[in-house]
């Protein structure tokens, strides 16, 4: 374990030493210098100029945004049309034109260009339906071959596809920049709503959860009515009968809302969800009553240990630190390449073609003599060292450590909460026998005594998750293959490891509860938890899963309620706040953020209840097996829980207490 930690520290150190995130922010020329960065020679040269943009028509451009051609930082794009042959001819006859093109440093193809995201691109125009550049439809490429302007368009599209995605990303960033405080207000409202529900749950668990259920049904019912109203309102409007397939992918979500098919699809989906929920309520009504009774007991436990409601904030901060460190390290690893130059020869039989070279010493070598016209040109960002060859392995190691740390943070939270709630259950006289600071005491025990067990459980889960990531990567790479057996094998492996991950999460969760109760190691606790659950498998299905379902309905109600308010707010349908709504490029950006964020906030608070119920359930099963209700072995469960589950009578002392 220590040796592995040392190796990972070496990987992180190498990434932070060799990486340079400025490559993501600034355009980079062929010499590895950044365009427009302060305190450099290129401080006033903020635009990237491509020497031969025709070489950008390559699928590799979509991967690393680097063309196999010289790239220069310039202060402005050229606004004159000329090829390199024309510039050479003007050296003697038109010195003014030659002096103009000298500012671009390297000889190459130059034509009128426009700036897109700090990069020079041809300024295309259409006349009489014909694509032109500087009123010309063809040009000579310097090798005696006449090329069409459409070749330039294909080359420019190689980068434009990536830049369009970046443009959408910038607009999304702008939307976040001007709406972040409204998003925080909505998430704060979701937090207060979740806290209010949890506090009320302590006193009116049954009534509140039925309100949850009918609230969800009501929200979905309103959604069905609204979808039908929109569907009927669009009837007869030109263009509303088009299909989503007809209009293709659009970044403006409002376009899809003008189609009847969109609202019909929403209505069908909501109707299906409504029917499923109603049928589940009908067939599970008795089990729901049992689950509500157990939640009341959990409400009492949380009522005595209110600090547990805020522990998810600690888990969130730990996971945020893990995500931040992983993301920064991944960026440093991805940007740790150096400019690599390779020999570009005009002759196909040149033995030095595609070999690495040094542009500063290239002219002193015999390559130019053996291969006339050969040049040492920029190829890509990377490296030939052992470190650069294994960057992908380092990225996998970084991802693995990220998964491990995240699972450890979750395990620490589960063990801490389980220890706090177990101290409540095993207190013979409640609340007199509950420790003074049960949450802090449980956290201290988990850190001091159970770190190894928690790390081991997180390690097993992280290995399975990494295998799933690798399988997804292989499936993406082999998606176009015609080998049906390979696709079938991958599908089976993905399904098996998905099931394995779900099973391990279930076992780990209950193992951490047993660790918090008895303090045994991970393997022993996992074995005892598994066999204990198997001996009470019916109760597991009835109590645990129905409780999870009810808590899930609560999350949906919180996220749905806040989401509906956010929708009316960002679409300016609330007259009181109409003037306060920021002008957005895509209103769905903050809306989706609010909905997902509200669900996660509710999940964080409701997960405390879920952990409480699971802990009390395992403690109850242990209580039934270890004790018989006699004076010598009294039950530790509360009188109300005892009556609900219909076991033997409590001992007189317990009943009085």
TrEMBL record:
<dbReference type="InterPro" id="IPR007603">
    <property type="entry name" value="Choline_transptr-like"/>
</dbReference>
<keyword id="KW-0732">Signal</keyword>
<feature type="transmembrane region" description="Helical">
    <location>
        <begin position="304"/>
        <end position="328"/>
    </location>
</feature>
<keyword id="KW-1003">Cell membrane</keyword>
<dbReference type="GO" id="GO:0005886">
    <property type="term" value="C:plasma membrane"/>
</dbReference>
<protein>
    <recommendedName>
        <fullName>Choline transporter-like protein</fullName>
    </recommendedName>
</protein>
<keyword id="KW-0325">Glycoprotein</keyword>
<keyword id="KW-0050">Antiport</keyword>
<feature type="transmembrane region" description="Helical">
    <location>
        <begin position="263"/>
        <end position="284"/>
    </location>
</feature>
<feature type="signal peptide">
    <location>
        <begin position="1"/>
        <end position="19"/>
    </location>
</feature>
<dbReference type="GO" id="GO:0015297">
    <property type="term" value="F:antiporter activity"/>
</dbReference>
<comment type="function">
    <text>Choline transporter.</text>
</comment>
<feature type="transmembrane region" description="Helical">
    <location>
        <begin position="549"/>
        <end position="570"/>
    </location>
</feature>
<keyword id="KW-1133">Transmembrane helix</keyword>
<feature type="transmembrane region" description="Helical">
    <location>
        <begin position="591"/>
        <end position="611"/>
    </location>
</feature>
<keyword id="KW-0813">Transport</keyword>
<comment type="similarity">
    <text>Belongs to the CTL (choline transporter-like) family.</text>
</comment>
<keyword id="KW-0812">Transmembrane</keyword>
<keyword id="KW-0472">Membrane</keyword>
<feature type="transmembrane region" description="Helical">
    <location>
        <begin position="180"/>
        <end position="200"/>
    </location>
</feature>
<feature type="transmembrane region" description="Helical">
    <location>
        <begin position="207"/>
        <end position="225"/>
    </location>
</feature>
<comment type="function">
    <text>Choline/H+ antiporter.</text>
</comment>
<dbReference type="Pfam" id="PF04515">
    <property type="entry name" value="Choline_transpo"/>
</dbReference>
<feature type="transmembrane region" description="Helical">
    <location>
        <begin position="449"/>
        <end position="471"/>
    </location>
</feature>
<feature type="transmembrane region" description="Helical">
    <location>
        <begin position="401"/>
        <end position="428"/>
    </location>
</feature>
